[in-house]
């Protein structure tokens, strides 16, 4: 680990001033500290924001949610309002990491976490995400766990967050505070696909701080859930996952929100699947037909071609679990 200075922000203004001067924000530290130990990250200044008043979960009058950036994953997972309104969020959180990490890690830190690509974490390997222009060792290396959607010739690393998949499906918004004031960014635009600049991962401006994630009110009744497929039952990242939310009224699907994880360079919204569902009656035939669209645009690599079929089956299964049918 390289030397660094440390300061604890007493309030939001102090945090923003330190961030504008190049300080890196830290709260739970469950990702950043690991990367510093591995010398992947070498911040000169850490700004501890754990004391800021960003720990509230608010249920809005219309039935949406506002989750403060410093809410612990375990707190959000067990919150009565989260569990009642959006089980998909609770389930995604409970299937993440370990109980110990969930008690430390924050919602803001979770969506900001960096890839688990082994080449990114190996400072001797070529990685455009770590060092722009150095190449991508995963393209022709061992790439079984890498992305098949949203990739480029410069990067094929997946985004590791489970709850980010739920946020993507539910069309959440990220609330940011910076030197120029507050702004909101749709979740779909907050995490950036690699393109030719994989080292730029979020739509953050210099010194900006995540203050909350907002989930809009959706039509009721709403059924939702999260399915994670992985090599082992616990403490493992997804090979594929599916977040599904369905509004079914009068035996017809009136709204469908679907996203996938473990297969994209960012949490991957599946609008083609959603379009197949709207206006239809739940059935096993419908789930299978809609899930066929889940891998549209996929570009599998040498070792992860299995993810194409696995993704379709994962989406089909979760549609059936959430939506029922015959």
Automatic annotation (TrEMBL):
It is an enzyme of class 1 (oxidoreductase). The keyword Transferase does not apply. Its EC number is 1.17.1.4. Coiled coil: none annotated. Gene3D superfamilies: 3.30.465.10, CO dehydrogenase flavoprotein, C-terminal domain, Uridine Diphospho-n-acetylenolpyruvylglucosamine Reductase, domain 2. It comes from the Bacteria. Residues 1-220 form the FAD-binding PCMH-type domain. It holds the Pfam family FAD_binding_5. GO terms for molecular function: FAD binding; xanthine dehydrogenase activity. The keyword Oxidoreductase applies. Keywords: Oxidoreductase. This is Xanthine dehydrogenase YagS FAD-binding subunit. It comes from Streptomyces caelestis.
């Amino acid at each position: 680990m390289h030397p660094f200075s440390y300061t604890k922000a007493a309030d939001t203004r102090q945090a923003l001033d330190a961030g504008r001067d190049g300080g890196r924000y830290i709260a739970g530290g469950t990702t950043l500290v690991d990367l510093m130990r591995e010398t992947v990250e070498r911040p000169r200044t850490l700004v501890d924001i754990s004391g800021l008043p960003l720990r509230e979960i608010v249920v809005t009058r219309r039935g949406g949610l506002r989750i403060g950036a410093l809410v612990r994953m375990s707190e959000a997972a067990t919150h009565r309002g989260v569990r009642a309104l959006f089980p998909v969020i609770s389930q995604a959180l409970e299937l993440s990491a370990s109980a110990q990490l969930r008690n430390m890690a924050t919602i803001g830190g979770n969506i900001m976490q960096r890839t688990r690509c082994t080449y990114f974490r190996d400072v001797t390997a070529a990685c455009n995400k770590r060092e722009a222009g150095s190449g991508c060792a995963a393209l022709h290396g061992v790439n079984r766990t890498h992305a098949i959607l949203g990739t480029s010739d410069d990067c094929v690393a997946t985004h590791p967050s489970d709850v980010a998949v739920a946020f993507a499906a539910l069309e959440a918004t990220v609330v940011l505070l910076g030197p120029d004031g507050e702004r909101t960014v749709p979740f779909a635009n907050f995490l950036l696909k690699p393109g030719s600049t994989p080292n730029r991962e979020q739509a953050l401006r210099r010194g900006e701080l995540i203050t909350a994630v907002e989930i809009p009110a959706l039509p009721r009744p709403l059924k939702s859930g999260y399915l994670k497929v992985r090599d082992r039952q616990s403490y493992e990242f997804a090979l594929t996952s599916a977040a599904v939310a369905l509004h079914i009224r009068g035996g017809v699907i009136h709204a469908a929100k679907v996203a996938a994880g473990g297969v994209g360079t960012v949490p991957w919204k599946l609008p083609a699947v959603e379009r197949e569902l709207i206006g239809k009656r739940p059935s096993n035939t419908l789930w299978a037909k809609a899930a066929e669209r889940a891998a549209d645009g996929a570009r599998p690599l040498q070792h992860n071609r299995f993810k194409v079929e696995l993704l379709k089956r994962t989406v089909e299964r979760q549609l059936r679990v959430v939506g029922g049918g015959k």
